[in-house]
Amino acid sequence: MSRDRAQYGVCALLALTGALVIADALRITHLTSSNDPIGPRPVPILLGACLLAVAVAYGIDVARGGRGEPEAGEDVDLTTRVDWRTVLLLIGAFLLNAALIDWLGWVISGTILFWGSAFALGNRHHVRGLLIAVALALITFYAFAIGLGVNLPAGVLQGIL
Amino acid sequence: MDNLRLLLDGFANVASPGNLLVALIGVVAGTAVGVLPGIGPAMTVALLLPVTYGMDPTQAFILFAGIFYGGMYGGSTTSILLNTPGESSSVITSIEGNKMAKAGRAAQALATAAIGSFVAGTIATLALVLVTPVVVRFAISLGAPDYFAIMLLAFVAVSATLGGSRVRGFASLLAGLVIGTVGIDGVTGQQRLTLGIPQLADGIDVVVVAVGIFAVGEALWVAAHLRRKAVPVVPVGRPWMGAEDWRRSWKPWLRGTALGFPFGALPAGGAEIPTFLSYATEKRLAERPEEFGNGAIEGVAGPEAANNASAAGTLVPMLAIGLPTTAVSAVMLAAFESYGIQPGPLLFERQPTLVWTLIASLFVGNLLLLVLNLPLAPAWARLLRVPRPYLYAGILFFASMGAYAVNAQPFDLILLLLLGLLGFGMRRFGLPVLPLIVGVILGPRAELQGRRSLQLSGGDLSGLLGGPVSYTIYAVILVLLAWPLIKRLRRG
Known about the structure:
The complex is a heterodimer of chains A (about 160) and B (about 500).
Chain A: H1 7-27, H2 42-63, H3 84-104, H4 106-120, H5 126-148
Helix pairs in contact in A: 1-2, 3-4, 4-5
Chain B: H1 2-14, H2 17-35, H3 41-48, H4 57-81, H5 91-140, H6 144-160, H7 166-181, E1 183-184, E2 191-192, H8 206-224, H9 243-265, H10 272-285, H11 298-313, H12 315-320, H13 327-338, H14 345-350, H15 352-383, H16 388-407, H17 411-428, H18 434-456, H19 468-491
Antiparallel strand pairs in B: 1-2
Helix pairs in contact in B: 1-15, 2-3, 2-4, 2-15, 3-4, 3-8, 3-13, 4-5, 4-11, 4-15, 5-9, 5-11, 5-15, 6-7, 6-18, 6-19, 7-18, 8-16, 8-17, 9-10, 9-11, 10-11, 13-18, 16-17
């Protein structure tokens, strides 16, 4: 098995986060009082320093041939490559819901989310998928928003539902 | 026995028809969601959180108790009927369980798992009733430096002892601690890591983190590697056991319980070690060790009991100290917090009704599970055939709903997606997710206790050392950290 070089990206990300956390901490005005002798800065600076240290240790581990096992699961087939098309389509459906939820309301945006995700995952029964999506969105809206008082917007369907 | 009276009051609270219905809903929903492939107990609890939003705390916790045990049981059903490991705690169950199922003994495997879970759950919950007040009495005497030390121990324990790689464990922990730092500092009112985004001023809600990492991260990860051919499901009838199975099961149940509960109650808890130990013990004690590897019922009975007993055990540090040691208890703690309830020693003083009702409903939920699961097993098995596109679309759907409902702002959905991508990356690179969740939850509290300790000492770092309790804990931390070194020295 070849070395998993993408792991160096994880090191870089850890180091970058560490630097960002330290930079942000230095920006904070240093406030201390008798109630709080250390103030808000030391903890993020310590975290940033630890992140940098772990990034280095991680890099050494990878250079020595260390690798993390990708997570297995009931429906996971690790012999295949990452299917980016599916992942990107799912992200698209997800973002569409985030963009539309306040305007169109949960029933419509949730339907789009479910139907779109099922499509991305390979569902080809479009009508059946749509029926399930609408049913789920309606049931959750009535059960949670109206029944339990959970925050879900009605959006453009306000007054109709 | 004051506690006994409180527990009986708790039972009286659960026994109203409305609350029994809530307990029943919790058990059924927990099992149904837990059975679904790809959904482990932690994700079950995280996805079902929004169900409790509109309820009053007591009912919400009755529901949780049901979801908790239901989700655990559902997970083991999946691992027996499908030949792929799901949750790490039920990996051991699946070794013999699936072999039994393939040999036509699925009914017996499910029965010994269900009855064993019931026996272990009941004994372990009893132990919880006896042990927790003792821990609470101890915890009340602790000061800020001791709490700080306990939380450091939890950080080191979840990062360094579980899973294979320490550096990956610590990377995950630090990511969690950084997420926990985002927001306005409670003491000075300074904004930290908010990047000028107003919605981040209140910090990132733990529920959004849990749902993002467990549900969205998992759904995206599975989507990237979705098995195109369905995994064969072993057909199953109604679970039952013959006299021989009973004779071979009851001792492993008890031994598994005895192993599981203490491990669960330790700050470095988790079900992996006790289930593995139980498996090894049963293999050594078995009359017919050659059956191990070909479907020995002891190999299902013991680990499954250990799994359930350790789950009950994790509630001891969770309730008495406010310390989550497994993913499930971390999500439960997040749920407590969303009700403004702070687990810890004071919880038993301030909200005795709530705590004892929760404990009473653990007993009730456990009994309901046994009554339900034996006849319903064939129905649960059918859930394993849910078309995967609908299953994972449903996870994203419910995850979005739950995260949006926390604060009713679309911004949380973007945050949820980013956390989901983080969870995806962690699964890809084999970073454990538990340290992250523990870091998010305990990080802010550890900082608070640390700063409180330093306040008492006027900023002198010796204030962190405290007294004998924290000395002991720091010694344990040092041993944990130095363990690989010690091992190498002994070998060399």
